[in-house]
Every structure is written in structure tokens, then in C-alpha cells.
Amino acid sequence: MSDDVGGRLRALRTLRGISQRELAKRCGVTHSSLSLIEQGKVSPSVSSLKKILDAIPISVGDFFTMDLQSRNQVFYAADELADIGSGDVIYKLVGANRASRALSFMIETYPAGSDTGREMIAHQGEEAGVILEGEIEITIGAESRVLGPGEAYYFDTNVPHRFRNPGRTACRLVSCCTPAKTF
């Protein structure tokens, strides 16, 4: 067995939100035995480990192959969000440092009177967003609409589109598009 069965078990139990006492009760192992296993002071037999894992539930194979450590940054402070906007428009991209991003998730800010440019934008994928504050005029193909707080959009980005803030205050929205844009 792996040298760190106890550490893996503790991480998995914590990840699943199960207390040590609850897991001990579920699998019929004493709390002190489970504690000693998690501390690495006792190595469980294969049958004991299976009994514990059945109570989580997870197979022995999945237990040893499950990646319990994230290799990528997971949490971001506000000042760690990359600004990939241009002109007055601010696009704060979450996860810009992730090489294998599958989507672009952003907090967008459009000051009063700003826009994405005179030219319509088109690219493969989809985009969705929710307006948090202010208002934004979105033109998608021949359709145009002004959206306010709580309103949302979702469209195929291969249709030419443009964003413009016609209001007197800044507009903030959260958006997501696929595939991930490379900036």
C-alpha cells in the first residue's frame, strides 16, 4: 500500500465533509483506530481499508488514483485577476495563468459611453453573461437590446456582436465564453 494512506484518507474524508467520528460510526471501526490510521501511526489491512472506503463510498482503486491535490491555482484575490481589456473597457479574467483553460470567465466593466469598438466581433464558440449593475446594449446580428441588473444573455459567438454602454454610469457584468480565448 501507499506510504501515505492516512493522509489520503484524511484528505478524502475532509473533502467529502465527513467527520472522523461519523466515518468511524459508518464503517464500524473505532474512532481511535481511524485517528491512528489518518496520523500514519497504524497501517490498515486491505480489508479494513476497504471497509472504511465503502462507508465513504469510494472504491480502493479510485482511492489510490484520485488526484486530491490541485496542480492549478484555485482561488484568486481581486488583484490577481488579469486585466485583458482594451481602451476604457476592463475585462478581469479569472484563471489567466491556467494553461489548459477550457473557458474564459470574466468580470467586465464598461464605463459610461464605452464599447467594444465600431466593428462587430465574431469567433467560434458561445458566450453568456449576467448584468450586475448599470446597463449594456448588446447587438447580436440584427438584434439589439439594452439589459439591466439581473438580466442575462447567451448566444453563439459566430454571429457578429458588439457591446456598448449607453448609460450614464458604469456597467459591470460577469461573462463566460468558450472556447477559452487566448490573450
Automatic annotation (TrEMBL):
InterPro entries, A to Z: Cro/C1-type_HTH, Cupin_2, Lambda_DNA-bd_dom_sf, RmlC-like_jellyroll, RmlC_Cupin_sf, TransReg_Diox_bact_type
Keyword tags: DNA-binding
Protein name stated in the entry: Cupin domain-containing protein
Domain HTH cro/C1-type: 9-63
Superkingdom of the organism of origin: Bacteria
The species this protein was found in: Litchfieldella rifensis
One Pfam family linked to the record: HTH_3
